[in-house]
Amino acid sequence: MLTASLSVILLSYNEAENIDEVVKAALVKIPSIAADFEIIVVDDGSNDRTFEVLGSLKDSHIKIIRHYKNKGYGASLRSGLENSGKDYVVTMDADGQFDISEISKFIPYCFSHDVITGFRIKRQDPFYRGILSNVFNLLVRTIFKIKVKDIDCGFKLFKKEFLKKLTLNSDGFIINVEIIALAQKNGAKIKEVEISHYPRLYGRQKVLNYKTVSTIASDLLALKWRLLSGKNIKSQLK
């Protein structure tokens, strides 16, 4: 069991059919991982019943953050991080494709590393999404010299003290790139750990698709400029 405290951030957008099960699973499984914990659910302007379902979940460990309009994956992650108050932070998508109990695979490395990131050993995604993800990962590793294999995996664990050193600006999908690139630039210790990935039971993929390719390309260029100019150092995170 983790002796330090733990914030778990669940990122959600139109996950009315999944969010109840995901949060309840977290409430059951996390106490065996960390006695002192909080679950922060960020609803990024959902237009289905997600916020209504969240309102029915009554537990003192749950903190709900609502964006009244859709701001993007990165903006949701930053909202969660800014409101996290524990020693370690786990980020996870709330679509049911990860098993929250696999945080236990990260624990052996959390005291010796600043970032532990998941590597999906068998991705359960549509064929086209797998191709886009492979192209994206290859592009990012080339541009930013990132050594992580599964850059866009949303299941990660951080030391909160490490996060305080960073200023994160990305509102969109590339925030995972920003975090890893900054971690490498600042000499952080990074560990990649194999995790399971499960088929989505309800809803559809929302982040990486053909429509977002041009936006991602533009965001990557902007991120590269920020890194070269050194404007991501010194965090405003609490």
Give a description of the structure.
With 238 residues, the chain is of the alpha/beta class. The protein has one domain (6-229): Spore Coat Polysaccharide Biosynthesis Protein SpsA, Chain A, CATH 3.90.550. The protein contains eight helices and seven strands. Strand 2 (37-44), helix 2 and strand 3 (62-67) form a beta-alpha-beta unit. The two termini are 25 Å apart. The mean pLDDT is 88.
* Count of individual domains: 1
Main sheet: strand order: 3-2-1-4-6-5-7
Main beta-sheet strand count, sense and barrel state = 7 strands, mixed
**Cα end-to-end separation:** 25 Å
Net shape = globular
User: Which CATH first-tier class would you pick?
Assistant: Alpha Beta
Radius of gyration: 17 Å
Element string (H = helix, E = strand): EHEHEHEHEHEHHEH
What structural class should be given to the helix and strand makeup?
alpha/beta
Describe the structure using short key phrases.
single chain; 238 residues; alpha/beta; Spore Coat Polysaccharide Biosynthesis Protein SpsA, Chain A; 7-stranded mixed beta sheet; globular
Topology:
Elements: E1 6-12, H1 19-29, E2 37-44, H2 50-55, E3 62-67, H3 73-82, E4 88-93, H4 107-110, E5 115-120, H5 127-144, E6 156-159, H6 160-163, H7 175-185, E7 190-195, H8 213-229
Parallel strand pairs: 1-2, 1-4, 2-3, 5-7
Antiparallel strand pairs: 4-6, 5-6
